[in-house]
Amino acid sequence: MRSYVMGKLFYAVKVGREPGIFRKQKQALNQVRDFSRGEWCRFPTFEQAEQYLRESVCNIDYDWLIRERNKKWYRKKVSFEELSFFDELALTQEYSNEEETIIAYTDGSAYKDYAAYGVVIVKDQQVIHQISGIKRIHNQKSMSLIAEILAVEASVQYAIEQQKKKIAIFHDLSTLGLAAYGQVHINTILYRDYQQFITEALQHIDIHFVKVKGHSENPYNNLADQLAKDLINKKKKK
Questions:
Q1: Residues 6 or more apart whose Cβ sits within 8 Å of residue 22
Q2: Both 190 and 103 in a single domain?
Q3: Could you tell me the end-to-end alpha-carbon distance of the chain, in angstroms, rounded to an integer?
Q4: Where are the alpha helices (DSSP H) in the chain?
């Protein structure tokens, strides 16, 4: 079991490829990928992270862990590596060639208790539809994350309404795709509701996630970001 004792945050992996305490979130995420029941959490102190792991001591089915380690089905639906702009364009065109597929660029923005989202629907390198909205949500943390999730949900709902068989969601938050397919376990109502939404939506449509670099030269991602920010800016002026 690894442990690191320097830095501001500590990432404890309870169930994963290599349980332990890590200094970087990326290192922790690497341990829970390929584990549908992977579990981790972050803490401000090493002692809290260590206590979290001590409380997690339980009977683990190691045969199950081996099976999960070899399970890579979700990799066909979740892309982790940030693509170059030209590779993104090539991939969007590839999806565009599939008649029953919708391509959506999603992004979110937050201010106080407001979460805004933007969705840009693309076909053959052209913007064919835009969706945006804003919600006021009281007593919630992680408003930026809520905004990103709202964008995903809006894009999926639109695709289902259009009676499409697949949607490719281009986003700039790495955990969105992983959490949707249960590859990251964060024990919050927010993530549980998100996973439930995806699970129900999968009965109607195939959902793919593609990680892109945020605030880059990609005009579709920038437009989705601007749609969300425009709504937030209106709230700031009031």
A1: 2, 4, 10, 11, 12, 13, 28, 31
A2: yes
A3: 52
A4: 25-32, 46-54, 62-69, 85-96, 143-161, 175-180, 189-201, 219-237
What residues are paired with 134 via a beta bridge?
A: 116
pLDDT, one tens digit per residue, over 9-34 is 888 887 777 777 788 888 888 877 76
What's this model's pTM, rounded to 2 decimal places?
A: 0.69
Helices and strands counted in the chain (H then E) = 8, 9
Q: How many residues does this entry show for the chain? A: 238
pLDDT in tens, 56-106: 544 444 444 444 444 555 556 777 666 777 788 788 888 888 889 999 999
Tell me the C-alpha distance between 229 and 221, whole Å: 12
Nearest to 209 by CA among 182, 161, 236, 174: 174
CA-CA-CA-CA dihedral for 118, 125, 174, 62, to nearest 10:
130
CATH of the domain at 75: 3.30.420.10
**Domain presence at residue 2:** no
Distance (Å, whole) CA 188 – CA 136: 19
Residues 51 and 84 in one domain: no
Asked whether 166 and 100 are in contact (CB, 8 A), the reply is: yes
In a domain, 111, yes or no: yes
- Asked if 106 and 117 touch (Cβ cutoff 8 Å), the reply is yes
- Give the Cα separation of 204 and 206 in Å (integer): 7
- HSE-CB at 70 with a 13 A cutoff on CA atoms is 5
